[in-house]
């Protein structure tokens, strides 16, 4: 019996082949096989390095279909090297080198590629000899020896969870870099391989023009970010909102938009939005004239009642008036300070408890019951309240989701009271803290926020472009 084993047939390649770079979100590219070139090259533009010096990354964009600049795929990868490369026409340039898997026929293997603008070239990729294995045979007279692909791959919408992971550059707008929520966001982003930068809102300034709106910070123009997470304090709401509008004008995804933040901070405006959306809330009254004090009190059902400053936060500027005379005194004092305030029905049956529902991306992801300390009616944790996890009803869940949607907030803390006639919204917070709710529920709220950001900014082809690609393929 012979022990002779027939060698495996060679892996045949033509002078051009269809390939895929799945790790970069590129399902189909037509590549030229060039054994005269040592290094492979990939078409890329808007090439931008980012991240720390000890772990540099690069992000770039690709037009995968020659002649179709309306189809753009956003990519990012870790930088392996930066090399001086001389092209076939004798021009020398410094290029970033990245690693990625290549799929060709029924094989997938890792290669290195350099990034360069090949927009004027017929092939979006050049496959050099360094990327070829020993059993590969190039047949110069043949084309596409392996299983072909086609550009219809860019017609299929990206299924959730199937887009390649890519490093994102994310800005957190916050004046409190040491705050728990900010630190959690930075730590969670780093754990996922993203680059998260904390930017002091008040140190930014803007160039507003017709063609290219810019944002500058400490004397330098800010780079392009994949996403912005606003953590804007109440004292800089107006300027922070203007800054977010500038990011939105640049096409950056902002977790919360400027309009929703501004509306949620103004309690009068917020309750008008809730009313318009037919969302349950305590009866609320507002007046400008001191002559209307008694009528104002009567509108919400007499004492006890709550008097709130329009821009109060963390329970500050919120007073419980237990008698009519006390209410008149508080209202008179607020008017004497020329402060804007509203008067609200006191939901006694809530018994000093409320529910904080954290809504991310239109889903309630965590809930806690906050309970006021003895002798206090405010359940805010900043006012000494305690917190514990709680199960909520379908009506409470739906109310929280509708409230966040009414303000068009991707991240919101919705505070509910359990009243006799159903859940009532006390407040919609556009910068909810993470410490209390993570501690009470044990949920990784920062991680859930990044899940939503990654879902929103994953590489995809706009629907209007999908239709045009389909027309070309058909």
The CATH class of the largest domain, by name, is Mainly Beta
What is the fourth-level CATH superfamily of the largest domain? Answer: Acid Proteases
Judging from the principal axes of the Cα atoms, what is the shape? elongated
Q: How do the strands of the widest beta sheet line up side by side?
A: 2-3-10-4-9-8-7-6-5
Which regions have little confidence, pLDDT < 50, spanning 5+ residues?
460-474
Domains counted in the coordinates: how many? 4
Q: Under the CATH scheme, which architecture of the largest domain would be assigned?
A: Beta Barrel
Structural class: alpha+beta
The residue-averaged pLDDT reads 85
Q: Count the helices. How many?
A: 10
Major sheet: size, sense and barrel closure? 9 strands, mixed
- Total strands: 27
Strand content: 25-35%
C-alpha Rg (nearest Å)? 29 Å
Helix percentage: 10-25%
Ends distance: 56 Å
Task: Give the SSE layout.
Layout: E1 11-13, E2 16-21, E3 26-33, E4 40-43, E5 45-50, E6 57-62, E7 73-86, E8 92-104, E9 107-116, E10 125-127, E11 136-138, E12 169-173, H1 180-191, E13 195-199, E14 204-207, E15 214-217, E16 220-221, E17 227-230, H2 237-249, E18 253-254, H3 258-265, H4 267-276, E19 284-285, H5 293-299, E20 305-309, E21 318-321, H6 324-336, E22 341-345, E23 353-360, E24 363-371, E25 386-389, H7 394-406, E26 411-419, E27 422-429, H8 435-441, H9 445-457, H10 463-473
Parallel strand pairs: 1-11, 3-10, 4-9, 12-13, 12-17, 17-18
Antiparallel strand pairs: 2-3, 4-10, 5-6, 6-7, 7-8, 8-9, 14-15, 15-16, 19-22, 20-21, 20-22, 23-24, 23-26, 24-25, 26-27
Helix pairs in contact: 2-3
């Amino acid at each position: 019996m012979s022990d002779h084993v027939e060698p495996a047939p060679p892996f045949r390649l033509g002078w051009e082949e269809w390939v895929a770079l799945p790790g970069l979100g590129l399902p189909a590219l037509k590549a030229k096989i060039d054994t005269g070139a040592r290094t492979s090259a990939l078409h890329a533009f808007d090439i931008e390095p980012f991240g720390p010096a000890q772990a540099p990354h690069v992000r770039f964009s690709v037009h995968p279909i020659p002649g179709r600049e309306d189809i753009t795929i956003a990519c990012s990868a870790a930088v392996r090297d930066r090399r001086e490369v001389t092209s076939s026409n004798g021009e020398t340039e410094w290029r970033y080198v990245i690693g990625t898997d290549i799929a060709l026929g029924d094989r997938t293997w890792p290669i290195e590629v350099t990034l360069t603008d090949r927009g004027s070239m017929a092939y979006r990729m050049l496959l050099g000899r360094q990327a070829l294995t020993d059993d590969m045979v190039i047949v110069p007279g043949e084309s596409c020896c392996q299983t072909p692909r086609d550009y219809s791959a860019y017609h299929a919408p990206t299924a959730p969870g199937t887009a390649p992971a890519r490093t994102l550059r994310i800005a957190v707008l916050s004046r409190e870099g040491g705050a728990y929520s900010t630190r959690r966001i930075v730590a969670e982003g780093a754990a996922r391989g993203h680059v998260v930068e904390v930017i002091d809102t008040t140190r930014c300034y803007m160039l507003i023009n017709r063609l290219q709106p810019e944002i500058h910070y400490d004397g330098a123009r800010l780079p392009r970010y994949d996403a912005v997470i606003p953590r804007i304090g109440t004292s800089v709401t107006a300027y922070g909102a203007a800054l977010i509008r500038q990011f939105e004008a640049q096409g950056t995804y902002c977790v919360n938009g400027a309009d929703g933040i501004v509306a949620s901070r103004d309690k009068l405006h917020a309750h008008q939005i809730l009313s318009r959306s037919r969302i349950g809330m305590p009866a609320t009254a507002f007046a400008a004239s001191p002559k209307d004090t008694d009528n104002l009190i009567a509108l919400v059902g007499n004492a006890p009642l709550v008097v709130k400053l329009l821009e109060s936060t963390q329970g500050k500027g919120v007073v419980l008036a237990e008698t009519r005379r006390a209410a008149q005194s508080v209202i008179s004092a607020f008017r004497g300070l020329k402060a804007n305030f509203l008067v609200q029905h006191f939901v006694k049956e809530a018994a000093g408890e409320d529910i904080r529902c954290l809504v991310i991306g239109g889903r309630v992801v965590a809930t806690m019951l906050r309970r006021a300390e003895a002798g206090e009616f405010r359940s805010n944790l900043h006012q000494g309240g305690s917190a514990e996890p709680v199960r909520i009803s379908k009506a409470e869940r739906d109310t929280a989701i509708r409230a966040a949607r009414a303000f068009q907030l991707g991240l919101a803390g919705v505070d509910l009271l359990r009243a006799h006639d159903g859940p009532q919204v006390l407040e919609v917070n556009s910068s909810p803290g993470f410490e209390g709710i993570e501690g009470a529920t044990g949920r990784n709220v920062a991680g859930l926020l990044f899940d939503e950001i990654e879902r929103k900014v994953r590489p995809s082809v706009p629907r209007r472009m999908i239709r045009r690609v389909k027309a070309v393929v058909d």
